[in-house]
Each structure stands twice: as structure tokens, then as C-alpha cells.
Predict the 3D structure of the following.
Amino acid sequence: MSSLQEYGMNFNPRMKVNFEGGDLTSDAGLLLYKEFDHKLGLTQTVKQLLVVHDPVHHRDHSNSDVVLQKIYQHLCGYHTDDHADDLSHEPLLTALLAKERLASQPTISRFNEKANIATAKSLENINEMLQGRAYAIETRDQFVLDLDSSGFATSGKQHGANYNHHYAQTGFHPLFCFDGLTGDCLRAELRAGNVYTSRQVVRFMGPILERYQFWAPKALLVFRGDSGFAVPGLFDLAETKGHKYAIRLKANARLQSAAQEMADQVLNPQKLHERQVHYREFQYKAKSWNCARRVIVKMERPAGELIFQFTFIATNMTLQARNVIRFYFQRGHMENFIKEAKNGFACHKMSSTAFETNAVKLQLAMLAYNFNNWFRRLCLPERLKPSRMETLRTKLIKIAGKLIYSGRYWTWKLCSSCIYREPFLETLNNIQCLPRFG
């Protein structure tokens, strides 16, 4: 029997501290995520679809258990494998995952060693199935497919990590596609650090389009991307499938010449002190294109300057030129989606020497990101839906709770002074009103 050890406080001798409070958690809000998991079928889908080449099946922690533990660790902000040792007997996580103790860091490392590209693909399939269920709850007929890449800095000798001149760092150069209207990550792919932005983008987009053809065959799909994605194959893919696009073009001599002629016509020497913005359009055919396409040009002259600055957007949309430009510049939201995936779920922390393992880590992080995004969109009160992950952790996850056992029930007694009690209860009610899958 261990003796109780207390620690006094110098600022007030009457105050003491000990670590004998019982089964307490600081992450009681994960109960909401587990309830949503129960409705959407995250746990069941992982157990059914996860693929890992593993000849050993008799152990305390199955591969699917490790994956689910990592997802829940991401949700409450414990991103590294080392955190697992500190959380081994955390009462809420062990209860949610139905474990006496969590998988340790060595166990997770053994999973990482076994994981390969087939594992990463299976996580993509899990993401796809759950995404289809989320869209079934909240049906839509318009989707914006935002394409972008990002830089993941690395250290040490990691397979595939190369120097990237654009980001001026050594690391990976993954490709992303997000739904620009919801923030869902439709697909993510880890790539070597020295590949060009649009490398194999047509192959990358193929499964996404097939998915939407099945989910919403009559939906309007619009591709949106910066000049790195202005490749003939992507234009042809959109036009062949009947989809729209708004993709920026890099300025060249022909584009500059055509735009300058129009700019000379609208330049007013008597109003040089005022800012000028004009929108025009013309037909343009690059040497690598098989046909001419509509190009919108935004001509902007800052106040006090003589020279116009041009922005060129290739599009097959029928919107007015001004509205095409506005639509294109809304793609800035994608930068926020990537930032959320990095800051909220550490998707850029590629710590393994093996490329395949890092690819699996990226898919795990993006699955956790999407699970939270579906939770945020389908379950939260309206005033909390715009919240980022760090805000949600502060308001809904990081709530103190104590586990009380009785003959028939496990009762989690949450902090009596929790200032976010009403949003918690409203979220729980919203979850319980959702249909259950699986």
C-alpha cells in the first residue's frame, strides 16, 4: 500500500497538491467524438478495410487498434508516437478504445515498420467510404476541387526527401485536393521533394472524379488551381468529363502583349493618383494546347504607378470576367486547410526513414483531419462551426472529468464549472440525431 505524498505551496501554506484524485481525464470531450464515431462507423470501417502485411495476429494490440489510437491521439493533440507511453493508462482513452492499457511507442513503431503503400491505400479507401457517408447526410450538388502542393521539411536521411528550390528546404512535396466549399481533404499523396507541382496530377484526379460520378453524377464540379497546374492534361480531363475549371496561367510574352494592348486603351493619364482595376477576356491557344481557350485577365494599376499588373485565368466557366477572378481568388482558403492539417494534426511531421511509413503517417493525419471536419460540419452548433482544431480542443475536448464506477454504469462526471457546457450538450444532441451507418 503506497503512502499519500502531498506537496505544499509556498504562496499559501494551507494549499497542498497530490496525484491521488482517481480516474481523472483532461480530455472528456473525446466522448463526443466517440459518439460521432459510433454514428459514422469509423472504428468498424477501420477494422474492416485496413490492410497491413502482418504474419503475427496474436497480440494485445491489433493493427486496427493502433490506427484508431493514433487517430484519437491526433484529435486531442498527442501527435508523436512517444506520447503513447505517457498515455498508456489514460482512463478515457483506454475506455473509448476498450483497452486495459494503450499500445506503447515500441508497438506503434512495429506497426510503422510493417505499414506499406498497400496500408496507405487502404487508409485512403477508409477515408473515401466515410466521406461518402458524410455526403449522404449532407447532400450537395456543387463541388470545388482545389488543387495545391505543400512543402514538408525534414531532417536526417529520409528516403524521398530532396531539396526543393521553391520552398528552399529539404523535404517532401505532397499533393493535395480539398473540397473548397467544406474543407474536406479529398485526396493527399506524399511525393519526393524535388518533383514538379503538377507531376501526375491527371492520374491523381482520376479516382476523385470516379468517386463523384458515383456519389453525385449530375453535380457541378469545378477545378481550381494555381499556375503550377496549368497543364494540357488537366484542361483536357475537365473538358472531356464536362467539368469546369479556373486555373491561373503563368505570364509569358504573348499573354503580356495581348493584355498590354487592352491596358493602353483604358489608361487615363489624368487619374494616375487613383487605383485602376479592369477585367477583360480573349481567346488564347498555347503551343501545347489542342484548342484555344477563354482567358480572363485582371488589369490592376496601383495608385501613383504607370504600369498595370496582370493576372491571367484560363477558364471554361460562363461567369462574367469579374466573377471568374473573384471565384479564383477564393482558392486562398485552401492555404488555411493545409495550415489546419499541419497545425492541428501534424500532417507534415514525417519522422521515419522509410518513404512508405511516412506515406501512411500522412494518410493517418488526413483521416483524423477529415473526421474532425465532418464532426465540425455535421455536429457542432452554428457558432462553433468556423472554429479551428486548437479552438475546439480548448472549448470541447480539454474538459476535466472523473470516472465513477457503479454496479451497472460508468459515469463520467465532468467539470461542474465548465463554461462550454451548453455547446457540449447541443453537440451531443446533434450527434444523436444523425443516422447510424454500418
